[in-house]
């Protein structure tokens, strides 16, 4: 991923898309068709595949990652958590990722599996039997130790502070900072953020990192995580789960149309496009990237990418443009 980012021309923007493994073979077949269409039409710089807490989707995540990397030729990043599961699952996932030609891992701690999350029956139920990994930084160090620089490693960050079962309230992001420094020093190559709608929180967060006296965030890509608004209910649920705040002025715009699903989507595309444009205007270190939590859906993200002119030209289009430019120069 970082090689691809570095190879982009100066001033270029890029984006990535997140997908999760469907539960059924039918879901997989449908997603594969959608992924083919999206990868051709949208041309993301990379895609990421989520991992169920505790390894609950291990096989399915690898299956989806294989489709993305091998069958569709997409640069793929596998999410991998390290707590509440056996160390052998971590080892197998990394080995399998290597076999599949995957070069990117998002190294995460993970949470305790939620009861509503489905479990792969072929995997043993594990309590926190693995004492080697307590935090994401342990996984970053482990990947470096086992694989050197083979994998490009991403880590998670929280513009509004990390919150979980033990700290249900938002924490001041400053409290997490030493741990993010630690993860970065341990070998993280890029940072993906939790989703947010409060763009000013992201502004403050990014500025805090870039100015941090440790100096570790001077050049590292910090990619904001954005979730297209699919429906009023999904929005309320996901913001609650991720502890992302909804600024009042945005909520008012959505509340005004909440009875009409189509209008919610339309206003949602406008809101996300405004967030992207705002971030584009910020001074950036290197190229500016955007990561979209697609929830495996196509339309909203496609509209946002079109509105914000984030879709790169296809190879053929670039050639045509060069030819026509050349033609214009002829006497
Ligand atoms: P860590 O970096 O380990 O941090 C967790 C908490 O521990 C933080 O509050 C931190 O401040 C604290 N901490 C860290 N190190 C120390 C230390 N040395 N001493 C004391 N405290 C410390 N979850 C999934 O299950 N599957 C996914 O696919 C997934 N994808 C995600 C993608 C993104 C972009 C993000 C932002 C999150 C994702 N998550 C996923 C959720 C993530 O697993 C949870 O948020 C989890 O609670 C924290 O993971 P982390 O990697 O940030 O943990």
Automatic annotation (TrEMBL):
Keywords associated with the record: FAD, Flavoprotein, NADP, Oxidoreductase
Example of a GO MF term: FAD binding
GO biological process, one term: tetrahydrofolate interconversion
Keyword NADP: yes
Cofactor(s) the protein requires to work: FAD
Listed GO CC annotations: cytosol
Pathway in which the depicted protein is active: One-carbon metabolism; tetrahydrofolate interconversion
Entry keyword Isomerase: no
Family (UniProt): Belongs to the methylenetetrahydrofolate reductase family.
The name this protein goes by in its record: Methylenetetrahydrofolate reductase-like protein
Shown part of the complete sequence: 4 to 334 of 653
